[in-house]
Amino acid sequence: MTTVPPRHDSPYQSYVYAYPHKTAYRPLPHRPALRDLWAGEAQHALSLYLHIPFCEVRCGFCNLFTRIGSPEGLTTAYLDALERQAGAARAALDEGARFAVAAFGGGTPTYLTAAELERLCDIADRRMGADLRAIPLSVEASPATATADRLEVLAARGTTRLSLGVQSFVDAEARSAVRPQKRAEVEAALGRIRAAGFPVLNIDLIYGIGGQTEASWLHSLDAALAWQPEELYLYPLYVRPLTGLARRGRPEDGPPEGGRQESLSAWDARRLALYRTGRDHLLAHGYEQVSMRMFRRAASPHAGASEYACQTDGMVGLGCGARSYTSRLHYSFDYAVNAAEVRGIIDDYVATDDFRRAEVGHAMTGDEPRRRHLVQSLLQAEGMPLAEYRARFGSSPAEDFPVELAELSARGWLADDPEHLLLTPEGLAHSDAAGPMLFSPEVQALMADYEAK
Ligand SMILES: C[S@@+](CC[C@H](N)C(=O)[O-])C[C@H]1O[C@@H](n2cnc3c(N)ncnc32)[C@H](O)[C@@H]1O
Ligand code: SF4
Q1: Could you tell me if the CB of 109 is within 6 A of ligand 2?
Q2: How does strand 294-297 pair with strand 287-289?
Q3: Which residues are in the Radical SAM core domain (predicted)?
Q4: Within 10 Å of residue 8's Cβ, how many Cβ atoms?
Q5: 58 CA distance to ligand 2 middle (Å)
Q6: 20 to 30 Å CA-CA from 121: which of 85, 230, 254, 411?
Q7: DSSP state, 409?
Q8: Cα dist. 120→113, 123, 152, 260, 421 in Å?
């Protein structure tokens, strides 16, 4: 089955958190050696990402690379493989390579036991040479897996940001999103996280869930605000191919509501309205907007690295769902959503001895680095400093992408700012439509051609 393209005028085309998306990656015919890929790359402020593809459940909305549970011994075998991959990745870097920021993501990193999390930190610390206690470290967790012993390990090893997936504080909405979870369990987890003393707590919430109303959305937002999280991510619900929600209805139909399929345009309008409600509520409660999804409590510590520049600095991703970025190539392993495919990819990963080559990826040639720069900074609320773009590329976005910018402007999404390329509030609300307009024709074709599995 191919990916169902969203309707052309939907504000929800695609969540652009990285460009190009993994669905534009393809097997690399010559399987380039990591050593060659990293030769000559700036390595003084790298980012390290470790991916843990395990969860206790498979939520109905989720298309991340992850599997439910782990047969006896699989997490140990996975950490063994991570260690081998770390050895190969470290050997491909210069001796003086330094990491400026680190993150453990998933899946659910806290699916691992406390002892396994110690080992994960050791891999980052000792194998890769990332000084976790000296650099920002962000870790994702789910309520049920955020146990006191695991949080204690993470706090002791230097975690500066703990991100908890909550999605909704309303039990009926969690059920509707096929996320088996009770509010009481969420509150208890938040209590344990605050007790562990992480400098930054982030809470993820989702809007557009079947049965969610403006009042119930405000109820979830207020329940989150009661914990005064330093950060909040508000995600519009997406129903993507092969997920539990997509299997329940047609992928392009959105979630069933009271037994009837809501029309896509009505669902779009509902998500846009809930976005505005959420944004205005957080702005009124002392939060600033960082991007369409991200909000930060004013005067709270920044979780990101001050040194690491996501535009130009490299990323080393370890684990079978992780991506790595050099200036010339983005690479990863195979990707899937379907349970059997995911299990097969993880089994292949743990059986791999030789991690010295890149398997699948996308070359950052031609104008791709400029497009990536645009996508990554234009979708930030503060916009893109034009001087930075000129310093890097010797030109302006208007010279390089006149057609794309004219289209954004015609839709009223570009603000008038002499120093920045900046989205208007409406533009920011439509980030998931504005971002894809900047994709290269080649990336668009690859994504359209991608066979979901
Ligand atoms: C890796 S998970 C967070 C940690 C943990 N696995 C959990 O679920 O609690 C990433 C986040 O992406 C968001 N997300 C994932 N798929 C989504 C979808 N289809 N629509 C909206 N948000 C989604 C959810 O808010 C989720 O918390
Ligand atoms: S939302 Fe989180 S817990 Fe649920 S399946 Fe996705 S990664 Fe796992």
Answers
A1: no
A2: antiparallel
A3: 40-279
A4: 7
A5: 6
A6: 230
A7: H
A8: 10, 5, 14, 46, 40
Q: What is the pLDDT along the chain (453 residues), one digit of tens a residue?
A: 333 344 568 999 989 888 999 999 999 999 999 999 999 999 999 999 999 999 999 999 998 999 999 999 999 999 999 999 999 999 999 999 999 999 999 999 999 999 999 999 999 999 999 999 999 999 999 999 999 999 999 999 999 999 999 999 999 999 999 998 999 999 999 999 999 999 999 999 999 998 899 999 999 999 999 999 999 999 999 988 888 888 876 444 455 444 445 688 888 999 999 999 999 999 999 999 999 999 999 988 776 655 556 666 799 999 988 999 999 999 998 877 788 889 999 999 999 999 999 999 999 999 999 999 999 999 999 999 999 999 999 999 999 999 999 999 999 999 999 999 999 999 999 999 999 999 999 999 999 998 878
Ligand 1 pocket residue status of 45, Cβ below 6 Å: no
Ligand nearest to the CA of 342: 2
Q: Is 136 in the pocket of ligand 2 (CB under 6 A)?
A: no
Length of the chain: 453
Give the span between the Cα atoms of 261 and 216, in whole angstroms.
20
pTM: 0.94
Tell me which residue of 43, 127, 139 sits closest to 93, measured CA to CA: 43
Distance, CA of 307 to chain centre: 20
Classify 357 as helix, strand or coil: strand
Residue whose token pair is 């009505």: 266
What domains are defined for the chain? 22-297 (3.30.750.200), 368-439 (1.10.10.920)
